[in-house]
Amino acid sequence: MSFSIERFVNLSKAVETSDLDWDYVARVGISDDEARVLRYMADTESHTIIYLRDLLAGHTARDPEISAFMSCWVYEEFNHGRAIDRFLAACGRPPSDGQYTRVTESASWTESLEAFFTLSLPLLTPHFAAAHMAWGAIDEMMAAMAYMQLAQYTRNKELAKLLLRMAKDERRHQAFYYHQAERRMRHPLGQILARLGLDNLWSPVGIGVGGDEDDLAFIAWMLLDSQRGRDELRHNDRMMGRLPGMSGCSLTFRRVDSLMRSFQSRFPGEVDRLRAQRRELGINLDADPALSLGMDAQLSQTL
């Protein structure tokens, strides 16, 4: 997978929202379930600055390509959060006062543990950047997948339009992280650090910031409870498995499936409700499977 940092920087901008039909957004609105998912997404996107601190630790900050990318990445992600918040507000569901501070202060202990390792270990070896880049790649895959699936789920056409735009941004981000990981994991130490870090510390993006494990499991039951959803997770694992030292990767499917099973065992009625609701509304999560799966190939040719 090739990547032009110059092209990425030139294309970087805040996600477009000025052409959305905001009267339609307010009139059609969204469901309580969609609002819950969007709140998780908005809080995760708005707190990207936390991850920037970790990603620019040690030797990584000395790399001009990574520094250039991160300058654009944090701006784009922050504006994703702003766009979602604006959408929620238009639907009569604005963020509560002090939302940003409350989310920051309630970040889980795992976030602190990850921050400790990602701030300390990069000082010891430049090869730790391989772990940062592989982690970023899998997180961006998950974010793009969630946006694509919610775009398929929602009956609000303007929300679908916004989600598809943000998904395209996430795929561009994924392309950078993946390219960097592919290059840096050619070194044996880079492979070891990336594999160990992902196998032992990685959890689906947003857990600990956007919400907890049950929030993520709820989103998965709402958006991934289909053959297409399972295929998307396995597709992410196949992509990661092509990186040096990552053969046989099943990380995203295993972690998400485990969270979903745990949730179902404790909240079977909620799973049944989500399934019944999809049937009642005629929502088909298996439609247009090539839309998301084909985006990686397109981006590899353009970036």
Overall description:
This protein has helices at 5-11, 22-28, 32-46, 48-55, 64-90, 99-105, 109-120, 129-153, 157-184, 188-201, 213-223, 227-241, 251-266, 268-281, 290-293, 295-302. It is an all-alpha fold. The protein has a single domain (5-302), classed as Ribonucleotide Reductase, subunit A (Orthogonal Bundle).
Task: List its traits.
single chain; 303 residues; mainly alpha; Ribonucleotide Reductase, subunit A; 72% helix; 0% strand; globular; disordered C terminus
- The tally of beta strands, per DSSP, is 0
The radius of gyration computed from the alpha-carbon positions, rounded to a whole number of angstroms, is 19 Å
Q: Note the total helix count.
A: 16
**How many independent structural domains?**
1
N→C terminal distance: 9 Å
Fraction of helical residues: over 70%
Write down the secondary-structure element order: HHHHHHHHHHHHHHHH
Provide mean pLDDT, rounded. 87
- List low-confidence stretches: 293-303
Beta fraction of the residues? under 5%
| CATH first level | Mainly Alpha
What is the CATH topology classification name?
Answer: Ribonucleotide Reductase, subunit A
Mind summarizing the main beta sheet? none
CATH architecture tag: Orthogonal Bundle
Identify the overall geometry: globular
Specify the structural class. mainly alpha
Please outline the helices and strands.
Elements: H1 5-11, H2 22-28, H3 32-46, H4 48-55, H5 64-90, H6 99-105, H7 109-120, H8 129-153, H9 157-184, H10 188-201, H11 213-223, H12 227-241, H13 251-266, H14 268-281, H15 290-293, H16 295-302
Helix pairs in contact: 3-5, 3-11, 5-9, 8-9, 8-10, 8-12, 9-16, 11-13, 12-13, 13-14
